[in-house]
Specification:
The protein is of the alpha+beta class. It is built from 18 helices and 20 strands. The chain folds into 2 domains: 218 residues, no CATH class; 292 residues, Vaccinia Virus protein VP39 (Rossmann fold), CATH 3.40.50.150. Helix 7 packs parallel to helix 10 and helix 12 runs antiparallel to helix 17. The radius of gyration is 35 Å and the shape is elongated.
Length: 604
Amino acid sequence: MTSLLEKASTFFSSHTSQFRLLIQSNNTRVVIISALSATVVAVTLPRIYRNYRTFISYGPGGVPYNIVGWFAASVIIPLVGREMFSTGVYEEKIAAGETTSYLGDEWNHLRKRDHRPQIGPHIVPQRQITEFPSEEIKEFVSVTDIRKGIVQGSDTYLPGIKKLNQDFYAFANRNQHLVGLAPSKLELHADALFLADGLVPTPAAQQLKGEIAHIHRFKDFSLHMTLAPADCKKVIEAGWGQRHRLSGVQAPKALFGGKVISLPSEYVLIYAPRTEQEAAFVVEIIAASVKYMTGSVEVRSPDSETEALDDVYLETVAIQSRVFQRFSIDHQIFFEPVDGEEAERLELQHQIFNKVFDNRLIFPPIPRPQKILDCGYGTGSWAIEAAEQHPKCKVIGLDIYPYMNPDDIPDNLCLQVDDLNRPFTFPPNHFDLVHSRLLATGINRDRWPSYIRDIKRVLKPGGWVQLVEIYFNVQSDNGSITEQHALRQWSTQLMGSLEEVKDLRVGTRLRNLLTAAGLTEVDARMIPLPLSAWSNDPRMRDIGATNRDNVKKLLPALGLYPFTQRLRMPPQQFAELIARAQQEADTHNLKAYFPLYVCIGRKP
């Protein structure tokens, strides 16, 4: 070994001058520089690649989803970014008088998060790279249920939609009076809550062109939204969020495809929840954002399928010895009595419909329905029978007045209180059948197109809608009823008194409404409903005989408020008109009937 070292030393000593010459040559300098460059590249290239892979892992959003977007997010945009955890800007605004909080005084103490997730190194898109939602709040669905054009590979995107995603859409559905859903203008591949049409935007909403909040539903399920300054301070202090690095900054057009990005300082990132409880916290933050951006506190919770109305909807008022719901009268929603006498009539009317329809509750072919919605359940007769006939089916009934139904109902029936003139609060694709009967006097005239669209939205693909309406314009099978008859006067004045608010002719338009909404397999029928036992057909004569008692009660019940309160008809004159109309309805040679319209349609 010693001899080898000695030989090596002798070799290098004898060739020192040659090595010096070699180093001094230009070629050698190039070699050394190249070697150093290669070393630098070898060290930095993996880091650059990992940084790029991190950028790609966020999924599309904000800047272009390619190397150009990565370069902008990594090199250029950070030059204009802000610090993300400072609350000084909010404290200044609070001191200047912007003290309103929509989260409550102790929210940041009661909802404190134990630690923050790690956020990716890029300003845009701003995403979590740790602490994704746990299995507890995941509900996996087929990848095909995610929008086409977004999913480019199951290895890049999570295969399902999380519980928070459901809460986000349920919140949107329940608050359509305040918000609408549309693709985000800031995150092109995210759905966002926008200010509903007709609302006056607050300054922050105006700055963001109406966009309130959006969810990053194809990756980490964090959210971006705008909050009141006091609430921004709370969520940051509670460890639930941070500022966007561009909040309060107007970025150059060139960085964002020619668009000026101007985010308010209240624009923040909210971290994804990890548990069911944390998902509820995030919904509270979403609600606070909507309140701040819309200026309205009438925000509904997504926790229940529909909203239970408060005691004001239970108040009644007496008009000429009949009982009406005060809220419906005050808001011109519903003009029929809600007393025991009317409940008895509705029960009789249901039995008449059973005779007309040969005891068939459901007309379309639905062998094993799982969920049914009954709109305007009244005394609950149809809903109760549907629940009894299909014990494995969940039946939900909606009506604005809850106290005409019996206390004893099937376990699979849930009767809820809501105003059908408001948007439905059920999630999309929810019901196998939506049943709607005799709502012409309750649904507002302008509401019918959106009412049918709501029905279509909550139907499952392949689900059916079934509509039944009476056209209260009395007809004669032999044409003998004229303008001088009390029955015709009752019809004309009833429809005229409600013309501005209700469409009592809607039965004649059901086919067109369903077709316009995009429903298929639409079928409509008109059935003459005799007012008394005048028909030669034994079956129809039996129906008419039963309907005689119903009509005798229906004429004053439907007419009392419209005639005496809207038309200001004196009570004695009204009583005389009703007495004559009742007599004519029982006059067989007039052959009087109401046109009864039935229409069904299917969601594609």
